[in-house]
């Protein structure tokens, strides 16, 4: 009986070995090959864990970078708002200067009505024009080009005019210059507001991306095994 049982056990062991051999992949027969085949799932799991850890680290890095970008954009938006305030102040200043120049022109026109002949010679009138133009330039009533025209007697600047008429020419030139300055200020203000709107939109978009990136980083990190979580853990940035 014992010999029969032993034979049956040997047959059963042989069958198990045969089945195990059949289960092995083609070409895997030697013990070293069998060991490598058995270790393959563990190796694949380790590689997958490393890949997920790398992805988690990349997600965290991106979240940090986008948060830095959002803070920078917020600073830019604040500077653009300051630019808008300064541009608005310049618009007000140039408008007031234009109004003052226009009032001065009205006074010069009234004075020109009552201007009479005088005995002042042409050289003295030319000097009066030069002094008047230089004074107007220092006040900001004339541009560089207008001052040059006045000093070289070009484009309607006549040194032979009566001093009152010279004041009228100066007043008209001042109104033109002040109006041009005001128009330039209006254009600068509009550009400042456009830049501010773009900066504000960029901040809004980046803040949304910060939230999404932080969420992806948290999900990726939470899915890691413990030993990889320690490796991938880095300081997460505060939302901008």
Describe the structure.
- Helix 2 runs parallel beside helix 6 (226-232).
- The protein is mostly helical and 240 residues long.
- The protein has helices at residues 2-23, 31-113, 122-139, 144-152, 163-222, 226-232.
- 83% of the residues lie in helices and 0% in strands.
- It has six helices and no strands.
- The two termini are 84 Å apart.
- The protein has one domain: Methyl-accepting chemotaxis protein (Helix Hairpins), CATH 1.10.287.
Provide a brief overview of the structure.
By secondary structure, the chain is mainly α. The protein has six helices and no strands.
Tell me the layout of helices and strands.
Layout: H1 2-23, H2 31-113, H3 122-139, H4 144-152, H5 163-222, H6 226-232
Give the class-level CATH name.
Answer: Mainly Alpha
Low-pLDDT runs of 5+ residues are 15-19, 228-240
Give the % helix. Answer: over 70%
Number of domains: 1
What integer is the average pLDDT? Answer: 79
CATH fold group: Helix Hairpins
Shape: rod-shaped
Question: Keywords, please?
Answer:
6 helices, single chain, rod-shaped, Helix Hairpins, mainly alpha, 240 residues
């Amino acid at each position: 009986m014992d010999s029969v049982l032993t034979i049956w056990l040997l047959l059963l062991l042989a069958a198990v070995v045969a089945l195990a051999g059949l289960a092995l992949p083609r070409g895997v027969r030697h013990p070293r090959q069998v060991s490598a085949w058995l270790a393959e799932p563990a190796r694949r799991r380790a590689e997958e864990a490393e890949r997920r850890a790398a992805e988690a680290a990349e997600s965290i890095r991106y979240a940090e970078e986008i948060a830095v970008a959002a803070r920078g954009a917020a600073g830019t938006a604040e500077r653009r708002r300051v630019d808008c305030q300064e541009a608005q102040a310049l618009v007000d200043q140039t408008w007031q200067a234009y109004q003052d120049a226009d009032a001065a022109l009205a006074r010069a026109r009234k004075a020109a009505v009552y201007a009479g002949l005088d005995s002042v010679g042409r050289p003295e009138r030319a000097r009066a024009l030069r002094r008047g133009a230089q004074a107007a330039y220092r006040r900001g009533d004339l541009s560089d080009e207008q001052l040059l025209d006045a000093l070289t007697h070009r484009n309607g600047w006549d040194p032979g005019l009566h001093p009152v008429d010279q004041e009228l020419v100066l007043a008209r030139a001042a109104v033109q210059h002040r109006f041009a300055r005001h128009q330039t200020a209006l254009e600068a203000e509009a550009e400042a507001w456009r830049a501010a709107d773009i900066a504000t939109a960029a901040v809004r978009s980046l803040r949304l991306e910060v939230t999404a990136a932080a969420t992806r980083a948290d999900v990726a990190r939470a899915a890691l095994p413990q030993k990889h979580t320690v490796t991938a853990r880095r300081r997460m940035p505060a939302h901008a």
